[in-house]
Here is the input.
Amino acid sequence: MVRLTGSIFRRAGLGIVGLAGATLVGFAGAALAAEPQPWELGFQPAATPITERIHAFHDELLIIITAITIFVMALLLYVIVRFSAKRHPVPSRTSHNSMIEILWTVIPILILVTIAIPSFKLMYYMDEVPKADMTIKVTAHQWYWSYEYPDQKVGFDSNVIQDKDLKPGQKRLLDVDNPLVVPADTTIRVQITGTDVIHSWFVPSFGIQEYAIIGRLNEAWMKVLKPGTYYGECNQICGVNHAFMPIEVKVLPKDDFQKWLGDAKKKFALNEPETAPPATAEPQLAAAGN
Ligand SMILES: [Cu+2]
Here is the structure.
């Protein structure tokens, strides 16, 4: 298909787009992921296979978009120069050209199909949770997150660190008191729900942005390849403290995670049934209602 569009363009004498068409055939393994830099314009480095694919797809689209933009600009310049009043004083009265009309209908359709196929593939890849090694449940509240490890009977709330309590090295509006801790190189099913309004659990470097909706259990998955600290934010406007419910995920090597889990089972043992709202949510809501 790509080769077909490429050849049509080449026959039309438009070498630039032909070149882009040829590039499309070979873009499958586009390189990505750099260190975060001040003033960088691109994405955060990819940390999961999903993000790697999202970035690769973005790079592919960028080639198509650039080719189309250059093509349209070249056509405009050609028309401006070739058909100016000076060079072309008597305008043509042509109103139809079947060949051109077929081309400008069929070629965009082919381009859209070329985009749609990898797009659907990626959406299914993101949507379908592979065989998971563990499950994590994320519950959104106004305005904090709580995390549960249902199989390990561990659960805790995760609140932003207030400006006045920040220690040196901690990131304002990103660091939290109790980050989500997960093992590296492990396929994790992430179940996401909410207790009050709609929030959204968004961690850019994981390629996850999933709505947290009351009474609904949404699902995503992640397999973080390298240990490290990753940040995200609620990205569904959820109320006055929307900007103060960041997400911090600490990814530990598997051994370290088991050690952490041992401590967490004592510190964060989950006794109450999962469905019970955390006690801390009540006073806020009651205060707001009165
Ligand atoms: Cu929110």
The mean pLDDT is 84. The chain is about 35% helix and 20% strand.
